[in-house]
């Protein structure tokens, strides 16, 4: 096991160099003093038809403390592009507000 962002997310690399996320040490992301639950954001992402799998983790962001960052596996037939990225942001923020 290797900690990707101490002390937040746990994962490992397999022999092929693929990253597998397998757990969390922290259950919230502290963003501008607000507690964001990564599992809640993941559930919002999974409601979108383009998203097959999702993982959300906190990444250091000087002005915010941490910022939520999403790693997604797209459903077959969808391609990653800026338009889809913006659509997913709006989709999640619309549910979170």
Automatic annotation (TrEMBL):
Residue span(s) of domain AMP-binding enzyme C-terminal: 40-92
Gene3D superfamilies according to UniProt: 3.30.300.30
Superkingdom of origin: Eukaryota
GO molecular function: CoA-ligase activity
PANTHER family: BCDNA.GH02901 (PTHR24096:SF422), LONG-CHAIN-FATTY-ACID--COA LIGASE (PTHR24096)
Name under which the protein is recorded: AMP-binding enzyme C-terminal domain-containing protein
Organism of provenance: Haemaphysalis longicornis
